[in-house]
Fold this sequence. Notes:
This protein has helices at residues 14-21, 26-34, 58-65, 69-81, and strands at 2-9, 37-45, 48-55, 82-84. By secondary structure, it is of the alpha+beta class. The protein has one domain (2-85): 2-Layer Sandwich (Alpha-Beta Plaits), CATH 3.30.70.
Amino acid sequence: MRIALHTRVREDRIEDYEAAHREVPAELTTAIRAAGVTSWSIWRSGCELFHLVECEDYARLLAELEHLPVNIAWQARMAELLAVVHDYSQVGAEAGLPVVWQL
């Protein structure tokens, strides 16, 4: 399944956000892969961030990461950098951005 997400980085924290993503903890990327993610890309346009997550089961991904200490620490770090955080609680057909058009 593919899930598109939108977040917004604080204008004064763009460099910090990009620096953080150059050093995502290996323990976190390993856990994300183990939870069924095959690809996660983030694009930035100004302060707007667009994520495309390809995974087996988005609900499973969220459940497996929810209480993981490395993810909790990462989410706290991201909360300092983001003005808009995507709603991780959305699952199933309501997850992420709605599809408007596909080819």
